[in-house]
Amino acid sequence: KQKKLAELKDKPAITRDNFKIQLAANMGTDDELDAILDTNSDGIGLFRTEFLYMNNNSLPDEETQYQVYRKVAKKMKDKPVIIRTLDIGGDKELPYLELPREMNPFLGFRAIRFCLEREDIFLVQLKAILRAAQYGNLKIMFPLISSLEELDRAKKLLDKAKLELTEAKISFNSDIEVGMMIEVPAAAIMADELARQVDFFSIGTNDLIQYTMAADRTNELVAKLHSPYYPAIIRLIKRIVDAAHRAGIKVGICGETAGNPLLTPIFIGMGIDELSMSVGSILDIKQLIRKLDQKECKKNLVQVIKLTTAKQVKEYLKTL
Ligand code: PEP
Ligand code: MG
User: Which residues are noted in the entry as Mg(2+)-binding (predicted)?
Assistant: First the structure.
């Protein structure tokens, strides 16, 4: 089996009727880079930058971050690398910052909300990414956007970072693509409008399911509710994909469901542009995609969209 999977490395993720998608890797630390290169993934669809902040006793400075981002950019050559800006808060703490205790951390001061309040910290990261983007195909992605206002403020701060680099005569790539995660239901509802303001979407299903089902992703007691099979989730993902495509932008999925083989035919039916997953799943999903027919997947999607319970959805997907 291992040998068969190895042979898939250099083949594209393409269906029998020639629908091609990008199979990218999620990266939690740069230690995973070699495995990602070994698998010959189509890029890095989610570079979680939290490790740079969490594996230290203080905030990483611009130079430290620049070195890491540049190394990844260079190693991935022309393949796209989506760097997600700091997604701290929720269940991820930074002890050295002494943030206030919150009753509901996942509904609180996390990710882009934190970065928009702490411009000092955010600008350091944005500058490091802009500088490193001269050495490869880096893109910037903002997490947990809930509104057009937040996206606008994040983009203004990116402009500010560019201006400060220009004034300091430090070279950088000003053409970097800017995308956002869709992981808050409010953003999913406003997807048509948001899609006109960014170059790409990436659906973070871990959080999108948590917030749509109102079920804490870390709470065992409600784990059953944190499931991608609920029709509300399938329908919501489809709407986001359709909104992105109406606006002419690309859309991927980077939550755990991206690597769930039961859902692969559904995502192919939706015409998703990219699936980004832990590196260990990439070849299995590629093998599956190469056996699928997109026309058939579209027909199956029409049926799945009509179903009304998670049980029905899961049972149906098992027959595909
Ligand atoms: C997600 O929410 O689906 C996601 C990919 O981001 P994280 O798991 O890091 O919150
Ligand atoms: Mg998330």
Answer: 183, 207
